[in-house]
Amino acid sequence: MKPKMVRTTSTLVILAILLATMVIPTATADQNNPIVVTKRDVTINVKVVFVGIDSKSVDLEYLNWNSPERRYQLTAIPGVSTDTTYSVKYDFTFAPPQFLQGLASYLTSIGKEETRVNVLWNESYFTIQNSYFLNYTHYPVNATNTYYPADQVENWLLEHGQDYGGQGSTGYTLMLADLSTQLPSITTAQFQTLATSHPAMLTPHFYNKTFTDHDLGVKLNRRYMTAWGGHSRFFFVDLSAGPGSAAEQLPLQLAASINNIQAGGAYWSKWLTQYLADYISGAVYNIFLPDFVYPLNYARTYRVKIFVIDNRTNGQPPIQKTVDPDEIKAQLSSLLPFANVEVDVQFSSLSEDDGLFRTVATATSPSPVGIYPIVDARLVYEWISQSGQGHIEDFTTITRNSRTYDIPVFVFAFDRNYTFGFTYKELVAKEVDFDRTIWGVALYDLVLISHSADDLRRGDLVSPAQPGLGFGFTNTIIHEVGHMLGLMHPFHTSYDPTENFVSSVMAYYPYENAFSQFDKDALLRGYADQFIRNAVQLLKATNFDFVNAPDINAANSQLRDAENAYQRMNYAEATQHAYAAYGSASRAQLLGGGGELTGRALALAIGAFSFLLGIVVGFMMSKRRRSQALGTAIATTANTCSTCNGSLTWIPQYQRWYCYKCQRYE
Question: pLDDT for 421-439, tens place per residue?
Fold first, then answer.
């Protein structure tokens, strides 16, 4: 090698080494700067479509001010922020009159009437010794109800999206409709007649759906819904439907009358705007951007370990028919598309475990909650849980890491009409009408579920009878595992109970087995947010050097891919890219140690490093090609091994002679 070439190569290598080891100075220990937690702020689009509402009566500026502008997401237990904030961007649209006419015509064509006794409620205040007390009562009323099939209405609204300006391509759509003058609806006159204790026939309308238990086939008619949605990113609320005891909310026309609000009056526009904003708040807080009940736990494999324990004296129906592991796996797999889901079910009799048998016997309370006696869930939980007596180890071992996450589920079939319940101080009920009995509860470390023998044969006890039918455990198991993964009820906050009418296993009023699109978005978006935050924080705290440069570059590229998928609302893809970015950032920190190289400095450093590295690599490749040519020319020249005197072979890739007999380089 010529001297000039040696100097050039040495200079380039030295520059590369200096750049690779260069670190932007960070805070020293004596500066005592706190660690900054990376927070995340993203924009979510919400399109609100008004149907049958006069645009002149809505103050859009005031509506935007009243509607949630920012959603600070929380983990309810232990009650901390997820460090993600959603900024909500609204698009308010008023559907044209022809769409209102088309919708009303379609609903009229599919509606069915039924005369029933509905349940209404009344709130009034009275005074005793100058103090106000709330009087809250329920009472029966005669009604001719008109029902519209909820799924059919949702499908029609989605198919006719172009008639109201279409749904947002990247966001959620909320439709708020007043159909009080197009459909049979409760009127002010009807309600006033009831208020004077005179009989009246109400004419409300609702949305309905019939559900069938997956295991034991009992049918449920859900007659009193005033909203529906969730098969896509769309939710429909009929402000003129009801009222009914399922949500206990007044329809628009009745709410205005009871509050003495006159349409067109000075206060009308402000009141109506606030009324609409409250429904928007309910949708945003409950279903579009919900909180989580527990911290999210990402894993490549989720194992649901179900222990079904039979305590019935009558073994009918057979306990094996009460759980469908394939259905549980299918629904959870749709919620966790990135993971492998395993479901294992083991059946046993309570009498086979003396300790658990004695615990249940001790926990069986003679005090009923309403008409139901209870098995005290706290006593059973303490016996099973690791934090209590730890008998969960008699059933299984629990693994929880990023590879495998176990969810233990203990399912009890109690005798007669016993179910789990919770005590509250001296009473088993917090209030007289507050039922503390439960079908299931997710306690983060495990799930407790119970049905009574009466639940399993509920069809024999209802009127009209459904002989041999009942409620199995599959629906409850899916619901409680959803909580264990972090999902809330869609009616969790007090903003609006209307969101109970959503096609989700996490809702109460419907009896779906499937998770809604809102559930899937919430969980997958939560995973993506979590890994993006963590990856960014790691990169901020990582020194850039020659060794970890590839991982830093990979992490930044994967973060860009994650954000692109996130903006398209492909949260499953975003989760995968964000998880990969977190892995790359973790490796970069391990290789590079602490430090900080961000922003323009990081870009300049990476650019300069790449430029110089390219020069070095280019030069070395050019030199290598020349050496390879030289090696090819001399490889045939006889050369002798210094050890065995055998022939050596020139290896161009390593620029060295090799003895195959001695298996060593010269």
Answer: 887 776 654 444 445 568 9
- Can you read off the two tokens belonging to residue 223? 């007659």
Q: What are residue 127's DSSP bridge partners? A: 132
Cα gap 467→461, rounded to integer Å: 8
Give the closest residue to 535 by CA, choosing from 570, 560, 515.
560
Per-residue confidence at 372, pLDDT binned at 50, 70, 90?
confident
Kindly give the pairing relationship between strand 656-659 and strand 649-651.
Answer: antiparallel
Name the β-bridge partners of 93. 49
Where b means 16+ CB within 10 Å and e means fewer, 387-413 reads eeeebbeebeebeeeeeebbbbbbbbb
The confidence band for 571, taking pLDDT boundaries of 50, 70 and 90, is very high
Tell me the C-alpha distance between 295 and 126, whole Å. Answer: 45
> Rounded CA gap, 519 and 516, in Å?
5
| CA distance linking residue 484 with residue 142, whole number of Å | 42
Distance CA 644, CA 467 (A): 93
User: What is the chain's Cα-based Rg?
Assistant: 33
Q: What is the mean pLDDT of residues 530-555?
A: 93
Type of residue at 615: I
Q: Give the chain's length.
A: 666
* 101 token code pair: 């006419």
Query: Across the chain, what does the average pLDDT equal?
Result: 85
Please state, in angstroms and as integers, the Cα–Cα distance from residue 385 to each residue in 25, 106, 302, 357, 382, following that order: 49, 54, 20, 16, 6
Q: At what angle are helices 377-384 and 354-363 packed, to 10 degrees? A: 160
pTM of the shown model = 0.84
Helix H or strand E segment including 212: strand 205-212
Residue 289's nearest CA partner among 508, 478, 499 is 499
Contact residues for 338 (Cβ-Cβ < 8 A; gap 6+): 300, 572, 575, 576, 579
Handedness of CA 201, 204, 205, 208 (dihedral sign): negative
Residue pLDDT, tens place only, 381-404: 999 999 999 999 999 999 999 999
Q: What is the pLDDT of residue 662?
A: 56
For residue 477, what is the enclosing H or E element? helix 474-485
Joined together, the tokens standing for residue 139 give 């009472």
Degrees, nearest 5: CA angle 542-87-52:
160
Distance CA 195, CA 457 (A): 40
- List Cβ neighbours of 515 (8 Å cut-off, separation of 6 or more): 331, 334, 335, 482, 487, 504, 505, 506
Which backbone phi and psi does 73 adopt, to 5 degrees? -75, 140
From residue 120, give the alpha-carbon distance in Å to each of 188, 220, 242, 592. 15, 21, 10, 67
User: Which pairing describes strands 80-94 and 40-51: parallel, antiparallel, or unpaired?
Assistant: parallel
Q: Are 261 and 244 a contacting pair, CB within 8 Å?
A: no
Q: Are 518 and 507 in contact (CB under 8 A)?
A: no
- pLDDT of residue 660 exceeding 60: no
| Spatial distance between the Cα atoms of 271 and 281, rounded to a whole number of angstroms | 15
